[in-house]
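Model it.
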Amino acid sequence: MRRPGPIAAVVLVLACVVGMLALSGCGEGSGSVAGGRPVIVVTTPVLGSVVRQVVGDAADVQVLMPNGADPHEWRPSARDVAALDHADLIVENGLGLEGGLTNAIQQARDDGVPVFTATDHVSVRRVGAGEGGASTDADRQAGALDPHFWTDPLAMRQVVLALPPAVKSATGLDVQAGAAAEAARLAGLSRAVGAALARVPAGQRDIVTGHESLGYFADRYGFRIIGAVTPSLSTGAEASASHVADLAAAARAHHACVVFGEVGTPAAVTEAVASEAGTRVVELSTHALPASGGYDAFVTGIATAVADGLRRCA
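Modeled.
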């Protein structure tokens, strides 16, 4: 048989390459790219940590946001959008937390990618009008839905228990055993956190936060949020001078000796509230996983910082 000439050979090679890329989804795609494993794309590192515990090595879990990024402000790259388009399943937080990803996730959904929304499966809290006397922002007045469920291990447990049917439908994987084990561990984690926080006296349980991110934690473990430095469910809002003054006054009235700062909250404003209230600032890691230990260490770290910070008020 006559061999192809140089030009024909180049055309043949290019055709093969194009065919391989089409089959692989250009390197971003689903199971065939991940060594035969389905691809689950998760929006946030905290959710990603728990999803990995549930599915184990049966799927390739890809997390979009860098650890420590502010989910309210983060914006995806073209590569991130492509990962969503080629996922077998997308796991998102929902309730507007991933504002920069809204359009990209909706486009993937329109293209047929199944999406599991974590906050569809938790008992969502509302930031009620009149809750915490220092804040008069629109979120509180409207009773906005709070997306920050992940600071409560039992809320995360609800998500874990709801995940297996979505994974089964999207990928064919049975992760029920992994979910049951993770749910049991989360229940144990919540008990341990509750025991550690029981050391905080009843009179020292009024707290000031960076933004409206600790509501689920406070509700679960018996704390009351009297206000937030950034008076919103999003870190994108700005605190006025009058808000800073009102919040400082509320902190003094409730004998709150700590202002808890966090990612996305302007440090200068946090320091201004603390200075005017005669308190000190303690930083919380409400969005970033620790270097080791995953979700368990994340929640334990928040609890330890809160307990140590408040117990020093005595």
